Amino acid sequence: MPALRLLLLLAALCPPVPGRRPQRDAPGKIAVVGGGIGGAAAAYFLRQKFGRSVRLEVLEKAAVGGRLATLEVEGAGYEAGGSVLHPLNLHMKHFVKELGLSVAPAHGSLAGIYNGEEFVFEESSWYIVNLLKLLWHYGLNPLRMYMWVEDILDKFMRIYRYQTHDYAFSSNERLLHALGGNDFIRMLNQTIDEAMQKAGFSHKFINEVVCPAMRVNYGQGVNINSFVGAVSLAGVESGLWSVKGGNKLVCTGLIYASKAEVIPGTVLSIEPKIRPRPTGDPVKLYQVTYNTTSGLTGDTYDIVVIAAPLSRKMANITFKNFDPPVPDFPNPYHQTVTTFVHGRLNTSFFGYRDPSAFHFSAIFTTENPKLFINSLGVVSPVEDVGGEGKLPLQSAIWKVFSKEVLTKEQLNLLFSSYDSVKVKKWLAYPHYSPPEKCPPIILHDKIYYLNGIERAASAMEMSAIAAKNVALLAYHQWYGNTDRIDQEDLHEKLKTEL
Ligand SMILES: Cc1cc2nc3c(=O)[nH]c(=O)nc-3n(C[C@H](O)[C@H](O)[C@H](O)COP(=O)(O)OP(=O)(O)OC[C@H]3O[C@@H](n4cnc5c(N)ncnc54)[C@H](O)[C@@H]3O)c2cc1C
Ligand SMILES: *[C@@H]1O[C@H](CO)[C@@H](O)[C@H](O)[C@H]1NC(C)=O
Ligand SMILES: *[C@@H]1O[C@H](CO)[C@@H](O)[C@H](O)[C@H]1NC(C)=O
Ligand SMILES: *[C@@H]1O[C@H](CO)[C@@H](O)[C@H](O)[C@H]1NC(C)=O
Ligand SMILES: *[C@@H]1O[C@H](CO)[C@@H](O)[C@H](O)[C@H]1NC(C)=O
Q1: What's the CA-to-centroid distance between 146 and ligand 4, angstroms?
Q2: What pLDDT, on a 0 to 100 scale, did the predictor assign at position 394?
Q3: pTM of the model
Q4: Where is the Prenylcysteine lyase domain (predicted)?
């Protein structure tokens, strides 16, 4: 018995985890502003790093999920915002598995590329025919593009290794540099058009294949930066998937798993506060003021993570009494409108007099000022398990992307008949115009900002990566683990590590 007691006593005195021993108390309270995928993933990773004792609060002004949302059309839900994931989006894949959710593979569809006058490319249901058509139209450009994207993706994948080994970065540029060196930084400085021309791709290929991919994924043409351009090209590869029941289930699931409390309210301002203590150093805190249905209120936090795009038109947050002041950075977002239409396509609009000859269920477009749409395609409900089967073209649910809300006249041109129409207007992703500069991650001592990474590229996985980076960074800064922040040559260093 005494021996056992001694053992227990020793155990109590010993640090629970060997190695890195926290030198200070854990933070009391952390605020996460925004309950989209970025904020939800931040809550999840913050809990993982800081442990059970910290209080986590997610402040959300609208609905958890943010830009991941479903819209109901005739009794079924459809993805209205962020919809498809790449097979190598490893954080998103991990979340889905961890939360016990299921994957819905993307439906196969026959695609056509329309230039406003005619189809410049028409996919066939025969693989070999497509291959020959591609070769005939574009030579080796498609294959070379695949390799070009693969090379970028290979480097991009290094982030998972760094994050598994607990390394964090204090700026978005440093993070990108650690993945792909100066090449990646340069990608923010040139358009996808310039980058691909330099790499020897043909004008025809860039206009007819690359441009439509930019338009469907980012509502913009080939003048967007080449990093987001490459992300967009990866977004048209095979093996794409989404979450059964809706991608936003990942957000609610992560918040639940993190045991964070969701507070419905709009954050209006943040202000630094110093609270003196009778013993020891004064405590530095942040006063966060938010508006709820029962009026203005607020609370103080040790750490604040901002997981919503900062700009007057979006997360309009005032930083009060900061010295030096938290800078304003230009952060324009691009409007994209999602319209769901249950109806029959007017095939004459696309130059097909005979509707029975029209087989496309996905239509991409090239740049043409005459065109009032970016893309349209047949979609299936989020509850649908996907997989096999052609979607019925007669009276299907079409999802249309456009810059502006479609007028009645425009809908009457696109559809020969339709019943329900559902519209969602988004400030969807940054309006890209290289040279692109990412906003800082550290806005003040312990205020961290996730969405600056969107200026490099906006995607669900990018927000998840930024969330893990911020959780690691906040943790290392709190405990003074400077050896895990902004390490150079990580790729070389980790080669020798297991
Ligand atoms: C139409 C469309 C299609 C897309 N397609 C894809 C795709 O196929 N694949 C892909 O990976 N990505 C896609 N994206 C991009 C992807 O949806 C976003 O990159 C991602 O969802 C951003 O998540 P986030 O959490 O960083 O931001 P958000 O989802 O915007 O979350 C921010 C949250 O903060 C809340 N908030 C804002 N201000 C305040 C405040 N002051 N106080 C409290 N709360 C506040 C908001 O209500 C919101 O819920 C698409 C986006 C759109 C709009
Ligand atoms: C990118 O452009 C910015 C602004 O024009 C410039 O300051 C920076 O040096 C450029 N970086 C690279 C790697 O070319
Ligand atoms: C707070 O919200 C209410 C409605 O919910 C609104 O009337 C009021 O103007 C808001 N206050 C501020 C300061 O934004
Ligand atoms: C942003 O907030 C400030 C201060 O609360 C307010 O004066 C301004 O009108 C807001 N801007 C927008 C576009 O809502
Ligand atoms: C279909 O498109 C054609 C060509 O743009 C147009 O003339 C016609 O009015 C449209 N509507 C219907 C119902 O055919």
Answers
A1: 45
A2: 63
A3: 0.94
A4: 121-487
